[in-house]
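**Sequence with structure:**
===
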Amino acid sequence: MKTPKNVILLLLGSLFFLSTTAWIASSEVLPGRNAPKPAPKAQRLLYVVTPGVRNYLGYGGHGIQVFDINNNHRFVKFIKTGGINKKGKPSNVKGVDVSLATNCIYISTLEAIQCIDLVTEKLLWEKEYEGGVDRISISPDGKIIYAPSLEKEFWTVVDAKTGNVITKIVTNSGSHNTIYGPDGKAVYMAGLKSTMLNVADTKTHTVTKQVGPFSADIRPLTINGSQTLVYVNVNGLLGFEIGDLVTGKFLHRVVVEGFNIGEVKRHGCPSHGIGMTPDEKEIWLCDGANNRIHVFDNTVMPPVQKTSILLRDMPGWITFSLDGKYAYPSSGDIIDVKTRKIVTTLEDGQNNWVQSEKMVEIHFADGKPVAAGDQFGIGQLKQVARN
């Protein structure tokens, strides 16, 4: 019996379809053919600005020491900066922050703010401000800088692109440390001569709230991501205090147990430096007299002391990597947060120790900055709505 012609054609067509489909499928998995290229891995760098411990050039010289976080914090390069005072000497670095909107890193010194392009590494502008400058903070959109005068009566509000002054906010509190809230609506302004934390509304650039009073004048501070709690160092306390950013009330005083206050080399207060792990589960506290970091469980209130870590030198500041894996005290020790172990120490291109209270993490992709950390160890959980 003869097979109909149309059946033969149908069988031949099916065989051609199956072979073609198989060839396409096999070609899709062959390396180097149609497989999508993997996204380039972000370069994670730690920018450490010096002299970041007073004007001590022995802790890293004058400029920016850059380290590769992905490569055991190996030294990468050195970037020259401005910041020369009228006597021709490098001025104390007071703060550092990054704007992805302008692709710039900003460094405050005793007298001025300098703006450096992160791609070209060129100084774009450097301007002095009335009353000097202390630790600056930049808005989340990267457009506005809140610059405290140097322990004087006011904060200067600055355009991040031009450096031009927008306005001033007078607090008469000895302006010092500054945190721009993650939601961009509030700025937290701590003065060396006040037990009250001033909170400014960023739409009007006016103080609309105060938090406290705390037991003594406020030193370094940090906040949680939802901007409901503030954790502050105060003069005379080996420990920290907590305030409610919503109600403005003082909440708790937490004292370090098992250690004496002792004498400190710098800053004049036992605890100068406090940070919160990005997941907000722990508070890490500096102890200048005992060269230690004290770790507290922040899942309970008030937080409970857990352990202590001995450092190579006095810590005067602490912050964390964006992923929460590393803690960065100003001593230059790099601590694994999970194990509490010091995994390496910062050293420059000549194997000299690098220490600084002013450092910030920056991520690059295709040579451009795409993410940045913060200098204050701010919590990163933002699920709690603010009123």
Q: What stands out?
A: DSSP finds one helix and 29 strands in the chain.
